[in-house]
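Troubleshooting: if your tokenizer reports a length mismatch, compare against these two reference records.
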Amino acid sequence: MRPVGKNTKDAPDKAKRRTLWRGIRLVVSAPAACFGGKQIRENAEYIGDLVQMIRTGPGTDPRVRLSKDRSLDVLSMSWNAQVPPSEIERQLDNRRKQSARSTLCYLTGAVLFLVVGFYHAAAALPASPSLSYVVGMGAICSCFLLLAFYHALVNWQIRTRRLGTAREFLHADESWWPS
């Protein structure tokens, strides 16, 4: 059956033109799709957001309340958490004990890696250890020592109930050894 009012001769021409246009569009748009402009734009926005986050700095933990002299305000923290102050004191004491254990574990790890490194260097004295081995052991020991220092700092902050800096920790009159 023939459609009424339509020119049947134009239908194959339209189909050819449509197919030709699809081919041209594919040839033109394929390189642009491979370039990934949309993904580049989204990633650039993400990088911009990351730069903004870095510029603003780390946010403070809303659960930790400080008074004007940067000491921990236990009453305010307990009111905010809707628990008694004794519960906050218990949690701080648990964290202090945890940081003391972490400090001792990291110090033990640093000493063990140092001893193993010296033993390996002494045992292989004629064939002296490679520089990459010595640098690697030094890096591992440094990481362990830095983590031990960080946990000792956290322990000191909890013991003194004050958020002090690393410089204040090093110059403090109290013992730095975690308890």
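Reference record two:
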Amino acid sequence: MEGSAGSAFVVYSHIGVSSRSAGEGAASGGLALRDDLRSPAGLLAAPLIVMVLDSVASATLSIASAVPTRVDVEVFDEAADVSALRVDGRVRRSGRSQIFYDCRIVDADDPRRLVAYGSVTMAVTGPPVAQYAGHTRDGAGPQLDGRPLTEVFDGRAIEDGRYEIAPLTSRTGFGRLHAEAITVMAEAAATDLLRAKLGPPEVRTERLEAHLLGGRRGPFPVTAEVLAVDGDRATCRIEIIDNGADSRLVSLVVGRFRVVGPRG
């Protein structure tokens, strides 16, 4: 999220998130829930991570330039009857090298209904800037074209559990592969693999935890593996590497999923 103002890139504009500062170290924002932000079994977690990271950018803008090194989202509610979400978050600790932020995501029409919880750890990279590159606090509006999120974010499916993100462009990052593109691909790879291995059932994401190391070139292979299946819950590990930089590790993502419906 470091850098100066630039043209909005596809991550924020396509998802349609918006956020603004709500005072020193705080932010509020919103997201209208479209069909492409859901799976048949519930909410996709990756768009919620987009929402969380958009809000932390607004909250930290006056504090420091920083990049996320870890982001987590826990989804409690499939929100089938929810049309829009609201996020409210605050910086819990700000130091010379790190910032910690957390937030709650609720039904915009019923703030007592908690849908998800998110947290972000950020590494400080410099002094505050006027605006993060690609970050629009009032949202750029959704750009709908009928494609799945994986294609919008320059990804292609290779086989069950494997995707590849194209070499880095301003569509998916400024100087480094954006965390939101990483989590979109990671969630897709894991859910595709679980459907292939288990039957295929429907799969709902309950948690995504992404550790972010930064990818600067690409292409970026994305590979999921199933770590465990216990009843109706499964855990997956997803690895993303940078083939343009000696196959260096870009991200490790761990996801917890609920298997919904009969298996094949």
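Descriptive notes for reference record two:
- Residues 1-146 form a domain with the Thiol Ester Dehydrase; Chain A fold (CATH 3.10.129.10).
- The radius of gyration is 17 Å.
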